[in-house]
Amino acid sequence: MPASVTAASQSTKKDVVLSVRNISKRFGHVNALTDVSIEVGRGEIVALVGDNGAGKSTLMKVIAGAAAPDEGEIRIDDQPHNFRGPHEATAAGIESVYQDLALPGNLDIVSNLFLGRELTRAGSLDEPAMEARTAALLKTLDVKIPSLRVPIAALSGGQRQAVAVARSRMWNNKIVQLDEPTAALGVAQTRQVLELIRRLSDEGVGVIFISHNMPDVLSVADRIVVLRLGRNAGGFNVKDATIDGVIAAITGAGELTDSGARTDMTASNGS
Amino acid sequence: MSHSTVTPAGMGSATTTPAIGQSRGQVTEIVQRLRDGDLGVLPVVVGLLLIGAFFATQSDAFLTSRNFSNLLLQMAGIATISFGSVLVLLLGEVDLSAGPLSAFAAAVMGILVTNQGWPAPLAILAALAVGCVCSLITGIVVTRLGVPSFVVTLGASLAYTGLVLIVLGTEGNVYISDSTIVGIANTFMPAAVSWLILALALAGYAWLRFDLRRRRARLELSNPSLLGDVVRIALPAVIGAIFVAVLNAALGVPLVALIVGALVIGLQYLTVHRRFGRHLYAVGGDHESSRRLGIPVGRIRLVGFALASTLAAAGGVILASRGASVTTASGGGDLTLNAIAAAVVGGVSLFGGVGRIWQALLGALVISVTLNGMDLLAVSSGTKYVVIGSILVISVSIDAFSRNRRKAAGRV
Q1: Is the C or the N end of chain B the one with fewer CB within 10 Å?
Q2: What is the CATH number of the domain that holds A171?
Q3: How many structural domains compose chain B?
Q4: DSSP string, A88-130
Q5: Shared-domain flag, residues B208 and B78
Q6: Is the model's pLDDT at B14 over the cut of 60?
Q7: Whole-number average pLDDT of chain B
Q8: Contact residues of B toward A, CB < 8 A
């Protein structure tokens, strides 16, 4: 039923990897998500924006398998999926990087990249193999870290974020979700992480990233999907978008004046 | 530790340094680490040498083969229990019931073998099973109900103390005459056997190191300098040779030394080179992230507690063997705290996720050498408590001081 997907939430790319359709999620009497749709193409970077409480994190959890939707469907490569837990989403190729990064600080980079999925050789941890794969991956992503054997806690915020993003790339995933990857970073580190996101996209990974930072969004995303009060509130192709237009959609001001270059006004055609 | 292992905070070797000028790079890195307050086990080793030197000047009996043999026998029980303490501390928890549990397990063994006539191996297995089962109960309360381990194990320690009294009944003690059990702490190995075991262990270690070099080279990873690896094998070889030579000059290497050595190697392998160990460190370092990454946090904790208590029971068996009895005083007093102190003095963090099994051996050595030296000087038990307590506080202070330096230097 592609017709029910809003034009704004549709991928402009032919090759749709993730298609999330008409998702609703209620917590008791609170409608966290109502009829929300979003599509991500191969190698496409989609920014998910919205005010606090707009449902961004809930949507991310639904896609990550951490929260089951009440209605709607998730398709990956056109196959429907019903995630019963985060591990099933991971198995289907969706990797999620939350704000706290989930990197135990006492373990080194190699251990962190393979944590929970360690390579073994005759039952023992295969350290050389894991270290070699880590080095190769970080080289591919152009992440520069002085030593792979320092504990995570000794790294800077940007390096940690880079490690967390690199981990999401370790297992050949189709979709990577990032929750505010640049929120705590300085200017130079932010630039590095944005470049890393671009490289993920160059490798054909679809990226969903939540951000409050409009310049970041405009500089790296292909498309912007706006959520407001748990509904789709517009979508933009970045090449047509302006900061004012996006902010109008986030705050709801755009419902009065069609400012900016919104490609779609309605929350959903289906309603 | 080996080049390939995880090196949480402060421990372990130099890392992926460029291949050229490597040994020099390693030396500079070591100097830099020390400057940054990354002292590793240096304070413990220096402290141990100072304490040893002090007692050597005070008592002629201290630096003798026979006393060294005696020291190892005193130390074996505490060291075994302290390995368990390390496992629990790595989880970021604490087990205050280790001492009384060791006595309870030993009391069960004593009653079974002496009063019930069980064969020794079965009685020993029963003691270990008691340790394992008891810890499952406390472990489940800690992991499932979320009660702090401090409180649960404090209560459990009282309960185990009571169980020792109940099991031993009105007599208040049980003598063990079974030769197998008494033999654990009173058997000394023939000189040739000790040399053979040492040689085999070193050969195995050397083979592992060079196999690792080969595998790393095949994957085009940098290897530590050859000299570094030679030192890494030569150092334990020299220490081991002195160890065996000194003990052979007395009665020979005690069997318990072999048992404790095997435990260190086995637990070191489990914690550093197995998936379970990796997850143990991860849970202790950051249990929420571990859960998110699909690590069975509850199960890891439960197994950690169970292993720790089984080790406590094993320590109780060794102590009972040495004393040839279990009494109402067994496992009481300072045993639990000495075991935890051994781990902490050795450099295992109280906050979880940092430290190695073998460090508890160093810590246990510090405590046992101090106790042994004070025994030789016929120091009162009041003074002993004060001295051991001070050592604990000093070592934790050194750790806190170096941690601040490390933080300032951007290390952990």
Answers
A1: N
A2: 3.40.50.300
A3: 2
A4: HHHHTTEEEE-TTTT--TTSBHHHHHTTTS--EETTEE-HHHH
A5: no
A6: no
A7: 87
A8: 4-9, 12, 15-17, 212, 215-216, 218-221, 269, 273-275, 278-279, 281-282, 284-286, 288-290, 292-295, 352-354, 410-412
